[in-house]
Target: Hexosyltransferase
Amino acid sequence: MPSLYKQLGLGAAGSPVNASHLLMLVLGAGFLAFTVFVVHPNDFRLQSFFSGACPGSPPHDPVLAPVNATPKAKAATTTPVKAPDGHPGVRVLIGIQTMPGKYERRHLLRTVYALQLQEHPALAGAVDVRFVFCNVTSAVDAVLVALEIMRYGDVIVLDCAENMDGGKTYDFFATAARAFPDGAYDYVMKADDDTYLRLPALAAWMAGAAREDAYLGLQMPCDRENFYPFPPFMSGMGYALSWDLVRWVASSEVSRRDRVGPEDMWTGRWLNVAGKAKNRYDGAPRMYNYLGSSPANCFRRGFRPDTIAVHMLKDAGRWAETLAYFNATAALPPSALYHLP
Model:
């Protein structure tokens, strides 16, 4: 230590730094290095610092309109990555089509799906639920939706005028193909906001399906009396395309020129005209419409334990009945519904 003083010109008469000062500086620097690199290594990310990103920030921008980014190439791997225990081994992006003003429905669905992911944590890395609508034109919605985006980061805003059968589904698939890199998802699913999806059952079903040229959903027509003679298509309640088909929809003239019409039928028509989707998976009888007081048929039936999806949940009463059947609140302590003594 004395020789170090002399080399640095410290410790001489009149120097403001003595041996004890230098020792404290060395010990302080050592403690800082230990804290940064050993105690909190994940908080020190040079790549985030130089890119301007904050550590822990989400990997995607919640607003995707307009989208001009070029998809990134799939990273090459030399050894297969084993999915963690309980992980279905597939990744799916679920785009729930809704409208900006339907705050209550989005709040319900966020709660429903967050609880499923909490109960099945392995699904958190497999299922990505987003809410999809077109450009926000109301001044009120612009403020309130902005708060949602800032808080939850689960909203996709398409660059289109709000519609149901005017090309919104085409815009969703085309936007997903441009906005997310190849390999991010195995499937992209379009779903209605009056559909209850049981995520573990959905992921397990998809895990057994082909990863290419695949089309999954409730196939219609399901008999000669219902929607016959329309060509085969998957019901708009919720259907999925493999990633290669999503990219094809985004680049094909077949879909681009013929996007206006009943969205589920038109998606099926694109695939049928082009000879696509040779791997088709019919979710019947595990995907169906809510029965209620209507007569049962091939697409409308009562609840069943192995359900993947229930459609036509148009009001709070139907949602409550459905969630009660599937024990969505089973983990709630009995006394939690009552006031404190």
